[in-house]
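Kindly go through the following sequence and its backbone structure tokens. Advise at your convenience whether the structure tokens fit the sequence:

___
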Amino acid sequence: MNARPLAILKTGLMTAVGSDAMSCGAAFRSKLTNPTPTRFMDSTGTWIMAHQVELKDENPGLTKLARMAATVIDEVLSEVPRCEWPGIALLLCVAERERPGRIDGLEDRLFEQIQALLDTRFAAQSAIVTQGRVGVAVALAQARKLMQAGAARRVVIGAVDSLLSWQTLMHYDRVDRLLREDNSNGFMPGEGAGALLVGDPSGQAELLCTGVGFGREAAHIDSEVPLRAEGLATAIQSALTEAGRAMHDFDYRITDISGEQYYFKEATLALSRTLHQPKEEFDIWHPAECTGEAGALAGAAIIGLADAACRKGFTKGPNIVAHMSNDGGQRAAVLLQYRGAP
């Protein structure tokens, strides 16, 4: 079955390595990193390093999330007349509810703060997507439903997150998941925001989302069940079926992997379960090496990198498999294709 494709009309990003999509894309291409010490120490008495977004007159917590989100949403709507903004739905992706140290107010206060900063109101179809790293994939599926039902012509998908709170960092330090000199099997925390303006394909040069799939992994990172990557393989295969494609049709992968061996192993196992014809290479990119582990930002960073790679000509090819995994077992895959101008 060939699903209705969605066009990625514009991307916006704010990360530790760039304040907009263009600068972030260049940083991703050059594998630029910018870790700095946080205000927190780990259990060994060492300052925790993180990929931090620097803002003038910075206020941590919900206020910083709102400012980052408003900036990237303004970026993707920069060419849309302001009088049209109230007719556009905003699907805002944030941390999953079970995430340790999750900031209070994500459901009831963040959306209002963003609207206040932008001095606008978004359409009644707007919603909060509390799905962490898989959130952007969930939002793409929701956006497609809105458009198919005639409830929206264009949708903004926003994503904002930060792991740089004391409660969150202390949890991941306690379970030995932070990257340190004595622990290579860990991630460096990060924060940031991303946005996508999606709509119908125009027939011009543009990145398309041609399939979305979901799965659930019983052997998630906190379980003691042997990992077979069945959940991620299911998500990828569902997306392939929806798009009417096979895994060997694709040129490379972009994922949310941020350094932990579990997720590298999962990606390898999922590939072995879904690739049924040999390929000389099937490269894997992971923008989290530049942004750090930044939760809900992952999907926006992945699509932002894909869009930049295709438009700037440093891509491995026009067909991309993107996949994301939550610690709780939720899995998602998004198929992307860049179509040049006629």
